[in-house]
Amino acid sequence: MPQTETPGTEAAPRPRLRWWTELPLILLVYGCYSAGRLLARGDVSSAVDHGLTILRIEKALHLNAEHPLNRLFTRESWLGVPADFWYASLHYLVTPAILVWLFHARARHYRAARTWLMTSTFMGLIGFTLLPTCPPRLLSAGHGFVDTMAQYSSYGWWGGEASAPRGMGGMTNQYAAMPSLHVGWALWCGVMLWRYGGTRVTKTLGVLYPLVTALVVMGTANHYFLDAVAGVAVMGVGFLLAPRVMRAAGLVRARLPRRTAPVAEGTGSPIVSAGCQTSAGERIPRQRASQLDTAAGPDASPSDAGEGAPAPAR
């Protein structure tokens, strides 16, 4: 008799992704991101000191690309206005769109990609809390930066005080410049497009999107060059931690009680009762003749019917 698997020892199937469970999780993470930015305002003087320290380090290393880019975006409105729209909008549009695309078209890779993004986002919140940093646009005018968001605010929906809708600038933390999650999330989007896009166009967009975002955040004076570097570093560490986070989540899920679905009648299960099992060719005594006729075919001899079959008429 062929061996069959002992009931209850089957490998647990991987939980199927459901949008109604994924959406609240993503909204929860984004809510924590927004609340963290709002609560971790920090002391303004400390934030300014941190920003000036970053600026001095960049000048010592000849890395201060913010000044020439900011002058260019300030002088050329055909560059500055689209850059402000890019900064104020795509951060909140492209990232969710790629998450939805992965969920529907690349479900096998969605869970790891989502975990990577969320892990890195929480790390960014730690950076905002521990190192509040004044962006270049909020430094005094003597440092040579122009706030393009304020300069071109009449062209867009944002206000002059922040990259938020008009009248809502006070509801965001403007001193959360380090690290730049604009650059970090754009890098994540670029990697997803490069790895799973499948076409030359998507691979090209995967390279251009994070590069252009890095130029935009510096040209609009919202981030320093080192903020962008820190955003890339956060995504790198998040990428390394994501498998461990997934394993930890799997262990937690395994400890939760699971509901066992009842076996429907007539499904052909080999389990008869009390753990007894039958082989493929074994029949149960007094089985209904109609079932046997169907299985055996019209030419089957009566002797094949098993015990309890009616004897042929003579």
UniProtKB/TrEMBL annotation:
Residues that span the membrane, as ranges: 85-103, 115-133, 175-194, 206-226, 232-252
InterPro entries for the chain: Aur1/Ipt1, IPC_Synthase-Related
Superkingdom as given in the UniProt entry: Bacteria
Keywords per UniProt: Membrane, Transmembrane, Transmembrane helix
Any Pfam family the entry gives: PAP2_3
Location of the Inositolphosphotransferase Aur1/Ipt1 domain: 53-241
Membrane association type: Multi-pass membrane protein
Region (Disordered): 263-314
Main location: membrane
Subcellular location: Membrane
Entry protein name: Phosphatase PAP2 family protein
